[in-house]
Design goal:
Number of domains: 2
Number of helices: 1
Radius of gyration: 28 Å
Oligomer: single chain
Number of strands: 38
CATH superfamily of the largest domain: TolB, C-terminal domain
Shape: globular
């Protein structure tokens, strides 16, 4: 009896072991060992070596710096892929069968083609292409139909450039002044920035001639036939040069017409149509809501020139020069701090890129550096383009992974169309991106509008 129990126990043990051993093994994770080559422009064919890739092309997902690539061939140990456009420098990532692995960094080389869209010498003439003339163009913005609006600084006007290069004067005239009106009846005295509400195609301009006293105004420009109708919605001219004047200062107010500014330098809108104003001499960002709250201070400590990340008024800015809307957040070009700052719409401020030193150095986040952080624009993928360089002629790109790369290799002053090595500018003072991800810049010294295709 005892012997039979032992035999039965051994049998059960062996049977259990067999069942345990017959279970399928857990799937093994993939790994990336190497990439070749590890540098190049878009469309470069790269071989990725590793283990446990899918043997079908569609079973693998490969990304360069987060940008999806085309897989050409696949085996369990090697993938052949094509580098996507505008990828930027960053890690190669492979995903298959629910597993993913990071590989080495691919050093992306941007390819650039620069051409001249409009302008031919200094002046204020409408026309198509080189029949038009600008008088020191600066900041610019596209509407949802890819019409480009350009501040003609010395021409005291807002110019409109159609997609075919036809230029017209949308509002303002060569004579300085301050008057609301339609088309050339309007008068301006120092437009700094223009931004577009993509919901309505209405424009907003930040008007500030550069001195504390004078015009500190926000104007709204609505389409009126072929021209724009300018209406002052906040601020206005100050003829007294008196610090007690109600036309300048720092005051939030539920009635936007009564709010005070001290140098509205730049503007941006969000998806809900709220307006954000870079208040230059108050070193803060103001929010203008057209509902009950009116004008409030979103971030920055009024009157304190400094640098600090933080929430709301605990954050501090230097002499910032531009603000844009990117992926539901705001990005500020903090010029005197040599940094790009991110502001969440709840007022939280962080440093997106730049270590605070004045030099152009590629890298990631605060591992990068900028000689200048002057003007900025973003494409529909969320890449941010920044005007930098000692002469304001270098374009840098901040990818969605915060990797900073240099697009064109020469900051020298001049004029020439061509590729990233050949092209020359004479101080880029405005930058915008259309729906095709084509970059346009205002070439201030040459009084031209240039197109920069970056891939």
């Amino acid at each position: 009896m005892f012997y039979g129990v032992i035999v039965l126990a051994v049998f059960i043990c062996l049977f259990s072991s067999c069942k345990k051993d017959s279970k399928p093994s857990e799937p093994v994770g993939i790994s990336v060992a190497s990439i070749s080559p590890d540098a190049g422009p878009h469309s470069t064919v790269v071989k990725i070596s590793g283990k446990n890739f899918s043997e079908t092309v569609s079973g693998n997902e490969v990304r360069f710096n987060g940008v999806l690539a085309e897989v050409l061939n696949a085996s369990s140990t090697e993938l052949t892929v094509k580098v996507p456009k505008r990828a930027g420098t960053g890690k190669v990532t492979v995903a298959a069968a629910g597993k993913s692995a990071d590989g080495p960094v691919f050093n992306f080389k941007y390819t650039v083609t620069v051409s001249t869209v409009a302008g031919n010498g200094v002046g204020l003439s409408d026309g198509k292409g080189n029949a038009a003339k600008f008088f020191r163009p600066q900041q610019m913005a596209f509407d949802k139909d890819d019409n480009l609006y350009v501040i003609d600084q010395e021409g005291r006007a807002l110019r409109k450039v159609l997609p075919d290069g036809t230029v017209s004067t949308y509002a303002g005239a060569a004579t300085a002044g301050f008057a609301d009106g339609t088309g050339t009846q309007a008068r301006f005295n120092g437009i700094n920035d223009v931004c577009v509400d993509r919901n309505t195609n209405n424009l907003y301009i930040a008007e500030f001639p550069g001195n504390i006293f004078g015009v500190n105004a926000i104007r709204k420009i609505t389409p009126d036939g072929n021209a724009g109708k300018a209406v002052t919605i906040a601020g206005g001219p100050d003829q007294t040069n008196d610090a007690s004047s109600n036309m300048w200062g720092h005051e939030d107010n539920a009635n936007i017409r009564l709010a005070k500014f001290r140098g509205p330098k730049a503007c941006a809108t969000d998806a809900d149509g709220n307006l954000y104003i870079l208040d230059y001499n108050n070193y803060c960002i103001r929010k203008m809501s057209f509902g009950a709250t009116g004008v409030t201070t979103l971030a920055g400590h009024s009157g304190e020139l400094n640098y600090a990340d933080g929430m709301g008024t605990a954050a501090k800015f230097g002499s910032a020069t531009d603000i844009i809307s990117v992926d539901g957040n705001l990005v500020v070009a903090d010029f005197s701090n040599y940094r790009m700052r991110r502001i969440e719409l709840n007022g939280k401020v962080t440093t997106l890129a730049g270590d605070g030193t004045s030099a152009d150095k590629d890298g990631t986040g605060t591992g990068a550096a900028f000689a200048k952080t002057a003007f900025a624009a973003a494409d529909k993928e969320g890449n941010i383009y920044v005007v930098s360089g000692a002469n304001f002629n270098t374009i840098r790109v901040i990818s969605k992974s915060s990797t900073v790369s240099t697009v064109n290799t020469n900051d020298a002053v001049g004029y020439k169309d061509g590729n990233e090595d050949e092209a020359r500018f004479s101080s880029i003072m405005g930058i915008a991106v259309n729906s095709k991800n084509e970059l346009y810049v205002s070439d201030y010294g040459n009084s031209l509008i240039r197109k920069v295709v970056i891939e």
